[in-house]
Amino acid sequence: MPWIILIGFTGLYLNHAKLINKVLYISAYDEVLFDSAPDRRKIDKQIAVRIAEALWGRKYKGSIKAGIYHKRAVFVLEANKTKLIVARDTGHYWLKSKFMRKTYSPRGDLLDSKVYWGRIFKIIHTDGWVGGGLGSWLADIAAAAMVIFGISGMVLFLYPRIRRLKKHRLTMKKLNQQDHSKRDTQPSRFSI
Questions:
Q1: 187 DSSP 8-state letter
Q2: pTM to 2 decimals?
Q3: In a domain, 189, yes or no
Q4: Do 43 and 98 reside in the same domain of the chain?
């Protein structure tokens, strides 16, 4: 039963993500305020590398890419499937993984945390709890069971009604035949 509820909920989310995100995610900050924050500062590549090393606890040897994120010029550093995105004009930064994004002030204070529910629900919906091929098979089995339950429920609902309708028609047909046979055997008052 939890499988069916989980698949139903994740399917509902995938079809109506904006509506459900309003319930699951309430943001308490506005990135427009970054520009007027008292602790904002310009960031160069060396400072971005120092932030990465402080967060990841080791010397950063990866590449540094310039880009745009949330309409801001940024430096992007990546390690262990996690991206560090540093705003060049304000010093605010984001740690972004496959399922989550955390926003920090230039001092390192956590400002916001966002879970990417769509990605989580899509994986649960397609792969199930187990993941990979086995999870996909389990999800397919659950989906097939839901189809079978739905069809069998419709049959159980409709079969007695169809049977009663046929029985009613048969009864009406017999009554009509009896009525016609009585007319044929009774002499008419107007016969000559």
A1: P
A2: 0.60
A3: no
A4: yes
